[in-house]
Amino acid sequence: MAEKSINVNAENRDLTINLRVHRNQRDLIDCAASIKGQTRTDFILETACAEAKKVITNETFFALSEEKYQEFINILDAPPKSLEGLRKLFAIKAPWEKDHDGKTN
Q1: Number of structural domains, the chain?
Q2: 82 or 32, which is more confident
Q3: Which of 40, 41, 68, 102 could form a disulfide with 64 if both were Cys (CB 3.0 to 4.6 A apart)?
């Protein structure tokens, strides 16, 4: 997945996200934003986007040693295994493909 460039300038913002929070949550966010010299909105957006990127990366990227990577590639490149059970399953007609007397069309 290609990472989209996100311009976070306030003048480019045209959507609203509303949140309901507890006072202690707002105060915690305000304190952290103040420490970083940011507005509440900038702090929330920066933090939420950073966490979103981590979640996406954790779900789409995995690291392997060179040996394990080659093993993975070899499995992907190998011809498919014959799965006789699967072949038999696909050969069975679905109930809606049968005549009312139980015979297949």
Answers
A1: 1
A2: 32
A3: 68
CATH number at residue 34: 1.20.5
CB-based burial of residue 44 (10 Å sphere; 0-12 exposed, 13-18 middle, 19+ buried)? middle
Contact at 8 Å (CB) between 94 and 104?
no
Looking at the domain assignment, is residue 105 inside a domain?
no
- Look at residue 13 in the predicted model and tell me its pLDDT: 87
How does DSSP assign 58-71, residue by residue? HHH-----HHHHHH
- For CA atoms 45, 49, 50, 51, give the dihedral sign: positive
Q: What's the CA gap between 50 and 71, in Å, rounded?
A: 33
Whether the model clears a pTM of 0.90, i.e. scores above it, the answer is no
Half-sphere exposure of 8 (CA within 13 A, CB side): 12
Sorted by sequence, the CB contacts under 8 Å of residue 46 that are 6+ apart come out as 8, 38
